[in-house]
Amino acid sequence: MAAKQPTIAITMGDPSGVGPEIIVKSLNDKHIYETSHPFVVGDAKILKRALEVTNVELKVNSITKPEEAVYEYGTIDIIDLDLVSEDLPWGQVSPEAGNAAFRYLEKAISYANQGTIQGICTAPLNKEALHKAGHVYPGHTEILAELTNTKDFAMMLSAPGLRVIHATTHVGLMDAIKKNNAERQYTVIKLAHETLQKAGIESPRIAVCGINPHAGENGLFGNGEEEEKIIPAIEKAQAEGINVQGPLPADTLFFRAKRGDFDIVVAQYHDQGHGPIKVLGLEAGVNITVGLPTIRTSVDHGTAFDIAGKNIADELSLKEALRMAVELAPENES
Q: CA angle, corner 281, sides to 280 and 284, nearest 5?
């Protein structure tokens, strides 16, 4: 049986930003349709305006549900929520656009909760516009987690040859060490294992970074964080048959993972994991939320209001996010 192409919902993000432009540029690539069934959730009028700005010649097929999509190269299927005015200005913070960005994501999540789609790929939203519209969230991840009733989730970053999943992310270094515990370590190891298994890797090779230099070097560095916070989780996961090693020194682990020794690395804090990914190239990095009912990938940049509507925005990050959504989507049989 051949693998079925996953259905991916692409949310427009803030319609005043570069999201509409990079979406139409990305969907002008025939390969996207050879590997997936993509459709957009947004405003058709804004998508048509983006086509004019970018000089991309594609048809727009407004639909009310994914089942109406044609999924053919040359036609962009869009769930048209019709939320913003036709003269919405490019590159400006507005509650109208912030609310629309939230509603696009909300609609895509409803499809995920129904099991209609296998992935969500998000164009950037603007947090200030989101907040002005009354949707007070730090960003995409927290909205996704709340609307899917997800308790255990994690940020995963991917670049060519390297995947990293984070035990902690947007907190200070001291807080990251304090918040870290064996329960969270085990949860993240489990999420890494399950995510890559769903993507078709039968026994994912997982490596866990130490917190201290040289992973503590048997108590020489730090205050026993590896022994207290990491080792019990690794032992528990190993007892369940999960292929995980560590804690290992971060200064050599990322090199080993890039070489192919491991399928994914568990990073303990934001910069430990983000640094190696971004060294490999900002344009190739993809932000992924795991633990949700469906995989979610995103571009690694913001709304770029300064260049919105000028046909300057590069679509490479969105295309990479779409590719990663397809790669990580649960396998289906046709």
A: 110
